[in-house]
Amino acid sequence: MALITCTECNAQVSDQARACPQCGATKFKPRPPKPKTNWKLIAVLSFLGIIAVGIMFNQQNEQRAAAETAKTPEQRAKEAKAKSEELQQQTLTANAVKILKTSMKDPTAFTLTSAYGGANGAGCITYRAKNSFGATFPGSAVALKSDKILIEEKDRNRFVDAWNIACANGGPDFKVIVDLVLRE
Ligand SMILES: [Zn+2]
Question: Could you say which residues of the chain have pLDDT below 50?
Fold first, then answer.
């Protein structure tokens, strides 16, 4: 059963009723037609939406390309230098970790906890290893640009000074790459 509206008193009346139960009128307003879903309009709007998103992406890419070409040779050189310095730092850190691992009583028990690039091109390393009694201990080391490795256990104060200068503020993470080098 649906409801329709009485033309006289605006009461909601069953569409089965012959007369309005409120006022007895027999005329009713026609039911408003159900709004039809305009699939055509939706299709056109969706299509336009897809095109708009495509244009936006394209513009972003063009802007990025423009920013890249707008770089001065000095900027490019600076970026390339920073990249190669980070690569050098990565290599320095990986080599130091290799040396540390082989210098351990039990190299197979050596696990890298963290490795990252510090200040002044240094590599910052933390690890776990086993001592001569077979007990696991945590260790840290700083690989300096001069190829010197300062180890917490051995170098004590010199290690602490170097760590505070180079490693206290964190830096680019090298752990994944150094783990890969260790597995070679
Ligand atoms: Zn009525």
Answer: none
